[in-house]
Amino acid sequence: MAARFAVGRRLRVLDVGMGQGTQALRLARAGHTVTGMERDATMIAAAREALAREPEGIRERMRIIEGDGRDTGVHFLPGSFDVVLCHGVLMYVEEPDPLVAGLARMLAPGGLLSLLVRNGDALAMRPGLAGDWAGALAAFGTTACTNRLGLDVRADRLKDLTATLAGIGAPLRAWYGVRVFTDTAADGAEAPEDLQTLLAVEERAGRTDPYRGVAALLHLCGVRG
């Protein structure tokens, strides 16, 4: 966002599948007008609770809508947002192309579409690094996997999403790897003393070939023409 828009510009942001609102709140605190969309009642309750603890000015900049990301056209007019986020959602959608196309329609010209997806080209990395050779072998050539919550999800390949974004008029401008080295870290593990160094390493790897190609997740940024 910082690279795409002028410093100080107040953006209209749609966060589809906002979860408990962590990203949406950060953007509202930064001065942007944010709409969070979520269908899970538990997550919505957590987001509303977190928002209620914020100062009035931030509460006024954020609204929460209960709904499915595939129904954005029901709630908003085309071109209503400068930025659309869809992070950690596509992995739960069997046919992602219609959803992504609908998100792109919500963008104003020059708007930014931000997707965070499971990397289908690196599914063998986690079981392989854990010494699960049978699991690693089974992961080659598939886009099916089980996430940390024990749910069966699907992954996306960079080549396929690049083609999808080009086809809907929001071609890929930049992409990054997320969790290059830390995907095998135990859930709930305490942050290391050198956390800032760890984050610096992850960010550098996420921008650098060949490391970003084997990241657990991919962050893709498309721009509406």
TrEMBL record:
User: Which SUPFAM superfamilies does this entry report, sorted A to Z?
Assistant: S-adenosyl-L-methionine-dependent methyltransferases (SSF53335)
Say yes or no: keyword Methyltransferase present.
Answer: yes
Q: Does the keyword Transferase apply?
A: yes
Methyltransferase type domain mapped to chain residues: 14-114
Biological process (GO) annotations held by this record are: methylation
Q: Which domain of life is it from?
A: Bacteria
Q: Which UniProt keywords apply?
A: Methyltransferase, Transferase
Q: GO MF annotations for this entry?
A: methyltransferase activity
What protein name applies here? Methyltransferase domain-containing protein
